[in-house]
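Appendix C reproduces, verbatim, an entry submitted by the partner laboratory led by Prof. M.T., so that reviewers can inspect both the input and the predicted structure.
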Amino acid sequence: MAVYTKHPVAALPAAPPRETTAHLLVRAYSVLALFCIFAHTAVYNLLGPLGSGILLVVLTVGALAIWVPAVVAGRPTRFPWRRLPWAALGYGALALVSTLWSRWPAATLLTWTLLAGITVTALLVATMLTWQEIARALSTVLKTILGLSLAIELWVALVLRHPLLPNFAEVPEGKIDPHLYWVRGNLFDDGRIQGVVGNAHTLAMMCLFALIVFGVLYATQVRRRSMLIFWAVLAAVLLVKAASATVYLSIGVVAAVLAAALIMRAASPRRRGRLYLVFFAVAVGGVASAVLLRDAVLSLLGKGSDLTGRLEIWQAVWDRAITRPIFGNGFSSPWVPWDPAFDGWILNHGLSVFHAHDMWLDVFLQLGAVGVVLMAVAWLALTWRAWFFAVDRPRWDLDAARPYSPLSLLPLLLVAVLLVEGLAESAPIMLWGWLLLILLSFKMKAVPLIGVGVGERTPVISHGPQSRQVP
């Protein structure tokens, strides 16, 4: 309980450092920036390419205005330059340098600007927010996406009563390819829904992210846990209605990774070596079974033997990529559909495809073998760090009995989803995928223990009648 006094020596009561008005504004700004990245397609469909581009520039300038002075002033502590995700940043630097040999230099500069803006936002969030605040910010963003998705689907199905085009344009006479619609109005029939993000697969991914974040927050004993259950149920319903085969596969992988992490947490140090051998054998067996039974697996997931046209896309991308195998043809994530190099190159339902539907093949096309190596190092480092962040008991002194934090599972589960996503989509190298790569990599390097480090509250550790703070 706060005690107030008029004694002239006593300092005036003040809010805790993390609850000042300035920090609350930083948190609110972070939520806004994260929403615009995670729901970028919604912003694009609402404002168009020019409007969404202007919004990105404004948000990036705002992020720099917040982040740079804080770094220079040493808030919340001296900036850990050596902890930056240098492999991922090296990939970004190579992307910019590729303008010199790019077959589509205008697209390279445009999409690199997008990449740089997202990188700044990720560094801002990782530096200025704690692990708990990052989870809460992601929760707020995903709740907003889920709520808006339900609202727009209900509006289109019950009020508008016909599909909705981007920018709320009037539907013209005649037949239109369904892929042009923002929302098709399939909420109450057997069709897939697109939500506010305008894409069934992306909506399903947001729902899966939401289930992971809500589950972790529920385990941390946050307030209003009953509301988290409500949002989790809504996420599950929308995920089923979005019906993405890749997301269904991701759910199985996430469940397996979560089980492995919990088993490893409970194991003694001597048993861990044997468990790693068991996990490796199970993983190899699972991959072998999937390859041998691929037709049955694809049929179960509702996919044809051509993976919904992906084989043709991969072949076309490979044919172009192999012409420049070392440094690639030039960066462009996503592919700019109005650039002559991509306009009409690969068509799907009459529309120009804007990515390779496989992040590794996409990287090979754009930045060649050098880019693949850099990206592989970045993701390998993130996966390695996320695993031990989840399974190693938090320890910074002689006390080896501290409880695990549920928050330490969040990076591992998100990384598992993104790695599966990268096999069939290119999302992990752009927009929210790239943001999570930078954010999680930097945050875990700078703050390997939740509650300790740059951007974290310094916990007080009790030692009988006295206490000390962890540096």
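Confidence is low (pLDDT under 50) at residues 458-471. Additional entries are available on request from the coordinating office.
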